[in-house]
């Protein structure tokens, strides 16, 4: 795996600049975009839709065969409300924000590129990403089930990079939380993902230290 010697700054809404940034690499990790959950439609359209298309198409044009796409758990947010149990990647999608709609577009586009161009497109439905989970607001705070630590996300990305011929996949990016709702069995089986952190443990440490 070749890593960049220099940092190349580009706007993903600029196709030519995006394409120029991708030469001589074997994979793309697409994390760019507007992360505001309440962003207006125009921002979703520009970044999550137009920008994501530019990343996928630029990668295809320069011969890159693997893209790891930062999707979001907001793609399946209503399933969590309905199911109250493990939510699997193959359940019907149900975004609850325009942000989630934009991420869902990226997943659908990823399947198209994987099947039409024989690429590996892996969508990571990342949960609540914090280095350390914030204090829960109440005993049933979703952070206790949705937290994804930096170490676990790094492991998920690295194992995805290291595994060939994945085709199109959707993996939930979440830590080994006691209250986890999302099913990660496909990531465990296909790439050997073994998250190590648990939000519950950090909650106990906070209580112990009076935080």
UniProtKB/TrEMBL annotation:
Belongs to the NAD(P)-dependent epimerase/dehydratase family. SUPFAM superfamilies: NAD(P)-binding Rossmann-fold domains. This is NAD-dependent epimerase/dehydratase. Keywords: NAD, Oxidoreductase. The keyword NAD applies. InterPro entries: Epimerase_deHydtase (IPR001509), NAD(P)-bd_dom_sf (IPR036291). It comes from the Bacteria. Residues 8-130 form the NAD-dependent epimerase/dehydratase domain. GO terms for molecular function: oxidoreductase activity. The keyword Transcription regulation does not apply.
